[in-house]
Amino acid sequence: MSAGELIQEPRPGLAAAKALPKPLRRCRRVVAVTLHLPEFLVAAAGLVQRLGEAGRQIDVLVAASSDEPSEEAAHAGLRELRVPELARHRLALPIPFGAEREPDLVAAMSELVGFDPEPGVYCLAPDIDSCADPSRMAVSAAARQIAEVYRLPLVRYSAAPDNMRTAVELDVDEWSRKCAGLAACATQVTPLSGRLEYYAL
């Protein structure tokens, strides 16, 4: 299925268009982490827009290093989402890396979470089951540690429905902004497969 095709049939667990999914309605602030920005946009750009529209502050930590053109493209890609309360942070770890970098990831995420986070802070991270390489596994493991230490709800996002409990269906505007964001920052990215995004809490 190409990026422009729409999925018409509702699926079990599908959240109503424009509504913040019920498990996220207590969320007041989001600390998200990803290895690379394009893969984050593929899996969670719509959910980020939904959270931003609901007035939630969003911090996105990008773990891997990238060159200057990629950094400029990433900035342009996030700008296309039109989420005012979204801030991108860069850790710039040289890839590949593995579990030896988990302390660096945990430290960077801890700084974003804060020493004594207010109620309603959620952690957003890639689904560990979809992580095939050590770098992605380290990112996911660090997010799990942060969630355990600070007792934060951990939301796992994925570009595929495997092991995900809920789907968010993007409306036409959200879908358009997501496609524009990806076009701005990615030249080699897995094609989108309709307007659904998947997550589990």
Structure characterization notes:
The protein is α/β, with parallel strands linked by helices. The chain is 37% helix and 22% strand. It is built from 5 helices and 8 strands; from the N terminus they run ββαβαβαβαββαβ. The chain has an 8-stranded mixed β-sheet with strand order 1-7-8-6-5-2-3-4, sandwiched between helices. The longest helix has 17 residues. The protein is globular and about 40 Å long. The two termini are 27 Å apart. The relative contact order is 0.24.
Q: Separation of termini?
A: 27 Å
Low-confidence stretches: 1-17
Strand arrangement across the biggest beta sheet: 1-7-8-6-5-2-3-4
Q: Give the strand tally.
A: 8
Largest sheet: 8 strands, mixed
Content-based structural category: alpha/beta
Q: Which sequence of SSEs, written as H and E, runs from N to C?
A: EEHEHEHEHEEHE
What is the overall pLDDT average?
A: 84
Which percent band covers the strand fraction? Answer: 15-25%
Count of helical regions: 5
Shape: globular
* Fraction of residues in helix: 25-40%
Q: Supply Rg.
A: 16 Å
